[in-house]
Amino acid sequence: MTQSAVLIACENYADPLLPKIEYGAADVAAVGKALEQHGFAAADQTLLVDGKSTKSLIESRVRKLLRGAQADDAIYLYYVGHGFAHRGASYLTCGDSVATDLVDTSIALKTLLGEIEKSACGKIVLFLDVSSAPLLQVEKLVGHYEPWNDVRLHEAFDGAERRVCFASCTPGEASWSSGALKHGVWASSLIEALQGESPSAAERGGVVTCASLLKQWKAAVPRALRIAYTDKKTQTPQLYGGAGGALVIADVKELAASRKKKPAKRTVRDVARVALVRERIESVKKLSGFRKGTRVPDAVNASSQKFVGQLALEEIQNDLDKVHAELREAFKFKRLDLQVDGPLDGSGTIITPFFSYTSGVKQNPRDPAEVIWRREVIDIVDAEQILTKPFAAVFAELFDTVEFAPADAVDLEALIDRIEALDDPRVAIDYDREITWCKLAIRGIGGEIKVTKRTFEIVKDRPESPKKLLQSFFDIQHMLVDTHDVRLIGFGKQPA
Fold first, then answer.
1. What is the secondary structure of 361-422 as a DSSP string?
2. 3-state class (DSSP) for residue 452
3. Which helix (H) or strand (E) element contains residue 330?
4. Measured between alpha carbons, how far is 471 from 487 in angstroms, rounded to an integer?
C-alpha cells in the first residue's frame, strides 16, 4: 500500500493581472507536514508551488500518479487557486495561466475528474480551496467568465464510496484567509483536524470522517470569519461523495493522546472567544438625558430599550471619545487604524486592529427602572496585545469578568460527572438540581467560575488588570485541560 499526495498552490501567478492567493504556499506546506503524521512520507508528496504549479507539471504529475495507482493505494490531492467557468465548463487556474488566454492556459475540471474516475486507486481525497470572486473582479476579465460550478463534481463523486471531494466554499463565494492565523480559514481548520488538535473534527474513537470534518468546517469557518473581518463574510464548505460521510480521512487517536500531555497553547486561538467585561447597575433617573417630568419605564421591551439608549447617549459618546483618545496615545494608532460605530440604540464600538471595545447600556430585565452599563473588550485577534503595557494603560483595572464563548453547547451533566470523578481536592463543583448551571472552585484562583450550556465566566470580587484576568483564564485551562484532560468546556478549539 502506498499513500501519496500532490499539493498545489498558485499563490503568486506569473501574470501580474491574476490576483495573489494569500497564504496559499503556507497552506500546502502545513497540510503536507500534517499528512506526514498519517503515513504520507515526504518522499511520496509532490509540492507544486508558484513557479512549479504550471499547467503541464500539474497535469503530468496528477495523471502519472492516478494512472499508476493500485487498489490498495491512497491518493490525496490538494489545490488552492482561482477557479472560473466558461460556457458552462469549470477551470482551475495554474501558476502560468495567462489572463488574456485563460481557458487554454488553465486546467479543465472535467479533465482532472476524468483521471480520478478512471483511476484504479482504492481511496482518493480531493481538496479544492478554490473561489472565483477575486479573479472575476479583474477589470479585463469582467463579463468574460462566470464563477466555477460544481456540476461535474456531483457527477464524479455523488454515490462514490472510496472517492470524496471537499470544496472550501460554494460556487460564487470567496475563500477567505486570516492574517492572525497566517492561513486560509478553511485550510487552517483542516490542518488542526489532521494534527489531532480539534476534538470536534473527530468521531468517537478518534477518526476524522467526511461527515465530522464537514461539521467542523461548518462551525469553525464562520467563527474565524467573524474574528478576522469587521464586515460580514460568507463561506460555505461543501462535501461531494464519501459514502454519506463515513469515509475515514485520518485517524488522530494517537496524535490527540500525545497532545494531552502538552500544555494548552496560549495563543490567539485560546482567547479569540474571550471577552473582558465590567457591568454596573444604576437608576434610569441618573442618566444624563433624564429630565424632570421624564417617565420612568415600567416594562422592558424594544421601545423602552431604545428610550434608555437615547437617555444615555451623552455618557456613551463621552466614554467612546475618552477611550478613543487613550488608544491613539497608548498604541500610536493612526486615524485609519480606528473605526468608531455609534453610539446607536444604546451602544457604540471602537474597532482596532487587535480587538474591539464596546460601551453600552440596556434595561435591567429584573427592574425596568434600572439600567445595566456594560463595557467590554471583544473580538480579540492578537492575544499578545492584551498583555501589553499600552493596553494596561488604557484599561488599567476596569474589568472584573472574563467571559468565554464555547464553540459548542457544554454537556453540563458530563462535565459535572467528570469533575466529581477527578478526586482532586483542589477542584470542587456545585450545581442546581435542574442542571442549568454549575460553579467550579479551583484552589488558588479567586472569584466565581460559572458554566452554563452556552457560557463560561470568571467573575472576580473586584476589578483586576487584564493580565491578571487572563492569567486566571489560563490557570483554569491548565488545571482542567493539561492536568486532568477535561475538555468539555471547549478550551483549545479554534475560534473564531
1. EEEETTEEEEEEEEEEEE--S-HHHHTSHHHHHHHTT---EEEE--SS---HHHHHHHHHTT
2. coil
3. helix 313-331
4. 18
% of the chain exceeding 70 in pLDDT: 96
Place of cell 463565494: 173
User: Which run of H or E residues covers position 31?
Assistant: helix 24-36
Average pLDDT of the residues in 279-294 = 93
SS3 for 66-118 is: HHCCCCCCEEEEEEEEEEEEECCEEEECCCCCCHHHCCCCCEEHHHHHHHHHH
SS3 291: coil
Position 263 pLDDT exceeds 80: no
Report the DSSP pairing between strands 107-108 and 89-92.
antiparallel
Buried b (16+ CB within 10 A) or exposed e, 466-490: beebbbbbeebbbbbbbebebbbbb
- Return d(Cα 113, Cα 119) in angstroms, integer: 10
Question: Residues 15-67: pLDDT tens digits?
Answer: 999 999 999 999 999 999 999 999 999 999 999 999 999 999 999 999 999 99
> What pLDDT is stored for residue 168 in this prediction?
97
Under a CB-based contact definition with an 8 Å cutoff, are residues 248 and 207 in contact?
Answer: yes
pTM exceeds 0.90, yes or no: no
User: Cell 492567493 sits at which residue?
Assistant: 21
Q: What number of helices (H) and strands (E) belong to the chain? A: 15, 22
Q: Which of 113-117, 179-183, 287-291, 397-401 has the lowest mean pLDDT?
A: 179-183
